[in-house]
Design a protein that fits this description.
Strands 2-3-5-6-10-9-8-7 form an eight-stranded antiparallel β-sheet, covered by helices on one side. Strands 1-4 form a two-stranded parallel ribbon. By secondary structure, the protein is an alpha+beta fold. 25% of the residues lie in helices and 27% in strands.
């Protein structure tokens, strides 16, 4: 019996790897659009903070690329399809008044943490003049570290204070 083997070709292996990577990248959630319902129109000052935030948002969050949020709005953003969705200018969440709620501070931005029924999380900023909500699916809700880039952008664009909205 012959043990003839085809000679190993690094070029062929790299070409196959590149083709497989390109095929997978075409299916990645980062290439998708996300349907994100903007919040009802906030007051003009809040909308202005949200527009400034929109300009400073990171290109990636938790390793996921930003992608178009539809309908296009300065009040919304998404990363990894709809894996991570941001809505700025939301009304004050009722749970914000509950002292028993869990929270975390990231870059001088306090976040209310809420575990959702589907295993994901809702993070909502507090003590800022515009409330910002970030919904994270259960696959990417592994830790609050994904809030680092978002918190830096919020700290830069949304002043401290208590929103009356």
């Amino acid at each position: 019996m012959s043990r003839h083997r085809r000679p190993f070709s690094l070029l062929a292996a790299l070409t196959a790897w590149a083709a497989a990577s390109a095929a997978l990248a075409g299916c990645s959630p980062g290439d998708a659009e996300a349907r994100v319902d903007p919040p009802p129109a906030p007051p003009a000052d809040v909308a202005g903070y949200c527009a400034a935030l929109h300009e400073e948002l990171p290109d990636t969050v938790a390793g996921l690329a930003a992608n178009p949020a539809l309908p296009a709005s300065d009040l919304t953003a998404a990363w990894g399809g709809s894996a991570i969705v941001l809505r700025c200018g939301i009304a004050k969440p009722p749970k914000m008044a509950d002292p028993e709620q869990d929270g975390v501070w990231v870059y001088d931005v306090p976040w209310l943490l809420e575990k959702l029924d589907d295993g994901g999380f809702r993070f909502t900023t507090g003590l800022r003049l515009a409330y910002t909500e970030v919904l994270v699916d259960k696959e990417h809700a592994t830790d609050a570290g994904m809030l680092v880039g978002l918190s830096a952008a919020i700290a830069k664009t949304v002043p401290k204070g208590i929103s009356s909205y």
